[in-house]
Design goal:
163 residues, alpha+beta, seven-stranded antiparallel sheet, 5 helices, globular
Amino acid sequence: MSSPEHKQKIWQMIKGIGTGMLSTRHGDDLLSRPMTLVQDEYDGTLWFFTDLDSDKVFEVEGDNDVNVSFSDPANDVYVSLTGIGKPIKDKALIDKYWNGFVGVWFPEGKDSPNVGMLEIKVNKGEHWDSSSSKMVKSYKMAKAKLKGEMPDMGEHEAFGSSK
């Protein structure tokens, strides 16, 4: 998949964003909803809390190909990660990642029968980082227009492979 250095780069891009849009398939439809990361590092797997009786869990069980996209428009950073989703009930992971924010969604606490984790094993993705200043971007766009070229608006990289 990607090197430890690349995983660290992805983590630096997404950790400050924190909430990504999880896309799943329901029949012929693609559905997306916000999900908040709970981990403090990234090794190629994303972790989210989920209600094991939720629609997204049934969708992932029906088709485990998922996408999570992160967007920070203020800094022009965008990350799209595709992988295999799997809902799991793992007490050790629930204990490890439990926090007060999660508790709001599960008023019965971490021992609620529906508390689970959604594991996303990332196998490919893309990221864009054009975080240079607006002045620099404007200059690059004007220069490219004069030369009849596409502007270099920052870094873009695709990585990984299908399953």
